[in-house]
Every structure is written in structure tokens, then in C-alpha cells.
Amino acid sequence: MYCVDMTVPRLQFERVAPGRVFHAAVVLARPGRGVAAHRHDFWELFVVNGGAGTHLVGGRVFPLIPGDLVLVRPEDEHAIEAAPDDQLHFVNVAIPDRAWRDFIAWAGLQGTLGQWSAVEGPPTVALSTERRGECAEAFRLALRAYAQSPDALALCRFLGAVLPLLGPGPAAIEPVGPPWLSRALDRLREPEHLRAGVPRLLELSGVSATHLARVVRDIHGLTPTELVNERRLVRAAELLTTTPAEVIDIASGCGFENLSHFYRLFKRRYGRPPGAFRLAARAAVAPYQPGGEN
């Protein structure tokens, strides 16, 4: 993925939280300041509650805004910094590698773990307003449990609540681009904007179609249409695994007017059609009968 700088400090869980099942903390970074570059031998989940900043991982810079849920893997070299004119407030939970892998095996999430491990940037999801509340409650309970000397059950409750929010095989969020593009892509997360597609992205960007296409190609290596479709597919995958909505309704709600086109793009992106993708996700927690959705 990238070369690790061996001079960067490497934190060990047994030194961070000796004898604890996990570690939890609230972090408030002042403008222009934050957490210095480091790596560690444990897994870390953090959620941004307020402010804005950047996440430097393996030499690449990613934006951080409220509602971002981020997974940091062992040996990821990363640093976090608040924006020059804003504070950054987040809560993080550190989990020992052995406990993490035991939970993943117990929950049947080995395949999902492989996808989280393979993605180049930090696995990240932008939570909806409803999901932010669920996530905030899970982190609040983890903080309370940590203050009272947490046990394995508290860790299981936390992971059971948060990992479904992270989703199956999340993609890394986009590298930082011009502020106008970052703002437009943030607005594109809203369902009505996502459904409206490229014309709405162009409207939100406030630049010419030619300029938008050039910048999107330079930053993402995609056309605006490909970028919008990628966002739609990620949202569709989230809805398939977190709601009982019909596939046709999910496709339409994400902006795909042609169901065959949606199926084709989805299978290319996730390696299986939407129905099979949903069944595979359910199989992680409950057996299912073959011959259902396809």
C-alpha cells in the first residue's frame, strides 16, 4: 500500500491501556493543531463530532467533517489536524488486534475485514443524520464503560453497534481537492442531490462543466458521471445492508432510472448482484435459505 517510515513512533496497546479490554478517549484539537504522526499495533475507530480538519494517512490527505466514521488499521501511519480556523472534536476507541480478530471471526466478517484491509486509504463512511445518533450513542457508552473498567461484553456491544455503520467493504473517502469541490461533494451526500446526479453536482460546484470535468479527473481519476455513480453505488450498498427496501426502490432512490444499468454497475463494483450482496451481508449474522433474491 505504501512505505512505512520506521522513524515514526509506534504505539503499543499494552502501553496505552495496560490490562484494559479497550481504550476510549475524547479529543479536542485546537485550530491548526492535532495528533502528531504515529502508527500502532491496534485497531482504532473514531467519529468526528464537530469542527473540521484533515487526516494524513500514508502521505495522502483526506478531509474530516462531522459525521465521518473512520477505521484506522494496525501499522497505518497517520496524523490528524484541525483546520486552521476551526477546532476538531472527535472520539476514538482503540481495540487490541487479538480482540478485534476474535470478534471478526465470531461475527463471520472475515470477508469484510479483507475489504477493509485492502482499501488504500482509511476506510471511512459519511454517516446520515439518523446514523450519527446511533454512532454517538455507541461511542458514549464505550466512554462510560472505559471509565468504569470495561469488560469484553462492553467491547462486543460497541463493535456490534458500530461495525454495521461502517458497512461492508467501504471505500476510502476522496483526497482533498479545491474547497468548492469538497463542499459540493459533501452536499451530494444528501439524497435529493444524489438523485439529481451530474447536473446537480455542476450546480453545487458553481464552475463550468469543462472545469469540473478537468478537476474531477485530476483529483479522482474519474469523469463526473463515474464519480456520481460511485457515490450512488456506495449509498445503495449501505441501504441494501441496513434496510429492507426493495432493490428497485433503492436503485431509484439513489438516482438509477434504468434497473439493468444499476445491476450491471453494482455487480462490476461489488462482484455480485444487489440481492446476492444483501444475502451475503445477512449471512454474517443469520443463516439464510438459498434460492431467494438474486
UniProtKB/TrEMBL annotation:
InterPro entries: AraC-bd, AraC_XylS_family_regulators, Homeodomain-like_sf, HTH-like, HTH_AraC, HTH_AraC-typ_CS, RmlC-like_jellyroll, Tscrpt_reg_AraC-type_HTH. The keyword NADP does not apply. Coiled coil: none annotated. The keyword Metal-binding does not apply. Residues 182-280 form the HTH araC/xylS-type domain. Pfam families: AraC_binding, HTH_18. This is Luciferase-like protein. It comes from Deinococcus aerius.
